[in-house]
Write a structure and sequence with these properties.
Blueprint (H helix, E strand, L loop, with lengths): L1 H25 L2 H18 L3 H17 L3 H18 L5 H4 L1 H8 L5 H16 L26 H18 L25 H11 L1 H4 L5 H9 L2 H12 L6 H13 L4 H17 L5 H13 L6 H21 L21 H11 L1 H4 L3 H15 L2 E6 L11 E6 L10
Antiparallel strand pairs: 1-2
Helix pairs in contact: 2-3, 2-4, 3-4, 4-7, 6-7, 7-8, 8-9, 9-13, 11-15, 12-13, 13-14, 14-16, 16-17, 16-19, 17-19
């Protein structure tokens, strides 16, 4: 009887372990491991406990494979590659990520996994220039399937475009792809629930050789001044013409058409395009006026994502103008030679715009965090007194007092 009573708890324990381990496989990997993998990624960013993190990621990768969760499986691979990069010398860059090509080329790799791997490999190739610290030949890997180190930068850039377009072509994720946001190089731009195509097109636009474009002033003026119903035909026209901006506009054209049934998202994507053209243009008073007018005209849009992006950009523009105001930037002797009084109240305009829309902006932490810093800087009190280093006897003593958010000054002459 005694042995039986000992065996029963043991069997119960085995059954419990069997049940819970199988139950884990039944759970979606999002429930199984999303929070866990985020904690592991925090350790990677801090470069802490990398060996233990690696072991935990291997377990997560295996569990995700069993659960057929392409997203967690690929995310685990990306993090494992990041650990290898941290623990090895730079010249092993492509050897560390060889698993990407192995899985891409494997015939039994699921379509979802392959699509994500295409994006990871494109990012890997386009990021290589940040890793070059030695002779480029040192990065060659002759015994691997693809010797990317032997290619020129142009060839690697071209491959990045090919891989991203292959990801777009298969596009197996038809539902909301918010679980894939980690795949984006710039996740903060997604003020809406992205699709897989949104992430891939954004990656294409952000490729350095596509991202850089130069428009002549006439085209820039039109992009910053035309209303949406006239801008989109212009994009369609220029995207089909030869020019260094053709590919850049082609992907924006495709991105806008992806959301042509949702005007709020389409307008937001347009605002990204206008901002990019503005920031890459040679600024003059005309360009600045046109862009500020476009922002001001849309600050009350009913579409929240579009509206908050407009508010954010306008706050930054007005704050920059306020920084140009140098009311007290004149010599102790003589007159003010740098009169920028027209910008005196732009800090106030930026502050009021933010404070009037705080409830909306608070829903978008990436923007809110920046604008809270702007608010603190504008409201910060400041006081500076300057006096000449040579004071002739019997003459007045000139001094300059610069103050900010300060209504009283108490002083004593001794």
């Amino acid at each position: 009887m005694k042995s039986k009573s000992c065996v029963l708890p043991y069997l119960a324990g085995l059954l419990f372990l069997f049940y819970t381990s199988n139950a884990k496989c039944q759970y979606h990997a999002d429930t199984l491991s999303s929070h866990q993998i985020e904690k592991l990624e925090e350790s990677i960013n801090k470069k802490e406990n990398l060996q233990q993190v690696k072991q935990d990621l291997e377990v997560l990768k295996r569990q995700a494979g069993e659960a057929k969760d392409d997203i967690i499986f690929c995310r685990s691979i990306k993090d494992l590659i990041a650990i290898s990069d941290l623990r090895t010398e730079d010249t092993l860059y492509f050897r560390n990520s060889a698993i990407l090509d192995t899985l891409i080329d494997a015939p039994n790799t699921p379509a979802g996994t392959r699509s994500i791997l295409y994006v990871l490999q494109a990012q890997r190739l386009s990021s290589l220039n940040h890793y070059f610290r030695f002779n480029q030949a040192a990065y060659r890997t002759k015994n691997l399937r693809h010797d990317y180190g032997a290619l020129s930068q142009f060839q690697r850039d071209s491959l990045s475009v090919i891989y991203l377009n292959l990801a777009l072509k298969s596009s197996p994720f038809k539902e909301d792809a918010s679980r894939l946001i980690w795949l984006s190089s710039s996740p903060d731009i997604f003020l809406f629930e992205p699709k897989f195509e949104d992430i891939v097109i954004s990656e294409l636009i952000n490729l350095p050789h596509i991202n850089y474009c130069a428009f002549n002033p006439g085209i820039t003026d039109r992009f910053l001044s035309l209303p949406s119903e006239k801008l989109r035909p212009l994009i369609d026209s220029l995207a089909n013409q030869q020019g260094n901006y053709q590919v850049f506009l082609k992907y924006y054209q495709r991105w806008i058409k992806l959301h042509e049934q949702n005007n709020g998202i389409a307008l937001f994507i347009e605002s990204l395009l206008r901002k990019q053209i503005y920031t890459t243009s040679t600024h003059d008073s005309t360009i600045e006026t046109l862009y500020t007018k476009y922002l001001s005209d849309n600050v009350s849009s009913p579409y929240s994502a579009f509206c908050v992006h407009i508010i954010y950009q306008l706050c930054l523009a007005w704050n920059a103008d306020g920084n140009r105001f140098q009311k007290f930037n004149y010599p102790l002797y003589g007159s003010n030679q740098n009169n920028l009084g027209e910008y005196q109240y732009y800090h106030v305009k930026a502050l009021r715009l933010y404070q009037d829309h705080k409830a909306l902006v608070a829903k978008y932490p990436a923007f809110n965090n920046v604008l809270k810093i702007m608010e603190a800087q504008i409201l910060k009190k400041g006081l500076q007194v300057e006096i000449a280093d040579k004071l002739p006897p019997g003459k007045d003593i000139p001094f300059k007092l610069s103050y900010k958010n300060t209504d009283s000054l108490f002083y004593r002459i001794v």
